[in-house]
Write a structure and sequence with these properties.
By secondary structure, this protein is mostly beta strands. It has a domain of about 300 residues: Porin, CATH 2.40.160.60. The protein has two helices and 19 strands. The protein has a 14-stranded antiparallel β-barrel. The N and C termini lie far apart (about 70 Å).
């Protein structure tokens, strides 16, 4: 199958058929189409996350930020995208629209009075989020000498999800402008998924009735995972104005996950009602055990938060050269991505509560790097982002109760004309963060 898919985009007679939930034919490789490992707040700033610690949402990319949780936070996100895939020789176009779940998580503080007196804060979170998706349906029609027409259907479904828990600690030294903050945290949980591939070949001839062939590999896998992070925050002066500088580091080591695979090689035909049935089983194996090696990732970055503006940048590297699936390598390569982002918050201490849009947080950013899938040539992966957070309650503060609507838009693409195929993407993200003093004892004075 590795030999056939690269030429699907350049072979004469290529036909791409759309489905309301198709992601991309490139989701056949590696772990599929990788989901953004960022909350909606970070996505609006180009995806920066290493140095982000915001009381309005939960940063699960760098679990060190969990140490800064003061309220119970219920955080949920979703996205919708429109994708256009173009091949240049021959000129073909494929479009798809998808509505997808992004994440669901609940975070809460566990700080005791004794810890608080020592300048220690403790936070924890539970959640569910997708890691990747596999969904494509490709048709190829061609003519072979001595046979006639050949119809090939490539189909793939599956993806990876995580059920996770995270915890983080915050240690504060000093007060006022001399205050320094250290945070450390980890996410751990269970990762599970499927990877199902199907290839059907139908030979069409006016005089000879050939059997149709079906080759299917269905894999189920699951295992534990862990990743960690660190943040350091200090007060600095830039241009005579006070601000906070946050440095962050996150990542995970290479991990192995156990898998079971069903392999089928068979011929099939159709009955009078058009339903497929097996004619003969050429080869079949059930529950073949194996392992999947997931790559290691490391990210580093910073944010600087002034009175009204926040600026930040991230750099992330993933070592895909060690990725294997049942001891087999794939059309993947080491990848990196550079991200920059900014946020503007117009309000000051003197701003009237009646000026609603002064309390909206406005964001923008961009990212660039090579895509981890490399079929024929390396493809750039790039995009620009916009975002905003709208308060849905009157008062928003780190110790209050409030609801915030997070929004984001990403316009980007993968590939160029030189790589033979390009993908254009417009993604809309929306999330809600509800902050409250749940699970905290009320005191009366």
């Amino acid at each position: 199958m590795n030999k056939f898919l690269p030429v699907l985009f350049v072979a004469c007679g290529l036909q791409l058929t759309s489905n309301a939930q198709e992601i991309s034919p490139y989701s056949r490789y590696g772990l599929g189409d990788i989901s953004p490992n960022r909350n909606i707040l970070s996505r609006g700033m180009g995806g920066i996350a290493a140095g982000v610690m915001d009381y309005q949402s939960i940063n699960f990319t760098n679990p060190a930020a969990l140490g800064g949780i003061y309220n119970t936070i219920f955080d949920i996100g979703a996205e919708a995208d429109s994708r256009t895939l173009k091949s240049f020789n021959p000129a073909k176009k494929f479009t798809s629209n998808n509505a997808l779940f992004s994440y669901l998580q609940l975070g809460f503080p566990l700080t005791t009075k004794r810890m608080e007196k020592k300048g220690v804060n403790w936070g924890m979170t539970f959640g569910l989020k997708p890691v990747s998706r596999i969904d494509y349906n490709i048709e190829k029609r061609e003519r072979l000498t001595g046979v006639d027409s050949v119809f090939t259907l490539y189909n793939g479904t599956g993806g990876i999800n995580q059920i996770f828990a995270g915890t983080g600690f915050q240690f504060t030294e000093g007060t006022g402008f001399s205050k320094k903050v250290f945070r450390v945290g980890a996410n751990f949980g269970y990762m599970f998924g499927t990877k199902n591939y199907n290839t059907k070949i139908i030979l069409v001839n006016d005089t000879v009735d050939y059997y149709r062939s079906n080759s299917a590999n269905n894999t189920h896998f699951g295992g534990l995972f862990i990743n960690g992070g660190f943040q350091f925050e200090d007060s600095v002066r830039i241009g005579g104005k006070k601000g906070n500088l946050k440095l962050g580091l996150y990542g995970n080591f290479q991990q192995r996950v156990n898998a079971k695979q069903d392999v089928v090689r068979e011929t099939f035909s159709f009955d009078a009602n058009g339903n497929a049935y097996r004619v003969d089983s050429i080869y079949e194996q059930k529950n073949a055990k194996g392992t999947i090696v997931f790559p290691s990732t490391v990210g580093v970055g910073f944010t600087y938060q002034g009175p009204n503006w926040t600026y930040g940048a991230d750099f992330e590297f993933t070592n895909w050269s060690n990725y294997t699936f049942y001891r087999q390598t794939d059309a993947v390569q080491n990848s990196w991505v550079a991200r920059v982002g900014t946020e503007y918050f117009p309000a000051t201490k003197k701003t009237s509560a009646k000026k609603y849009f002064s309390f909206v947080r406005y964001r923008a950013g961009a990212f660039y790097g090579p895509d981890y899938v490399k079929v024929t040539e390396s493809r750039p992966n790039y995009g620009v982002t916009l975002g905003a957070s709208f308060p849905l309650t009157r008062r928003v503060g780190y110790a209050g109760e409030y609801v915030v609507l997070h929004t984001g838009v990403e316009i980007g693409g993968r590939g160029t004309k030189n790589s033979g195929v390009s993908e254009n993407l417009v993604k809309y993200s929306v999330g809600i963060s509800m902050n409250a003093k749940w699970f905290q004892k009320q005191k009366y004075y």
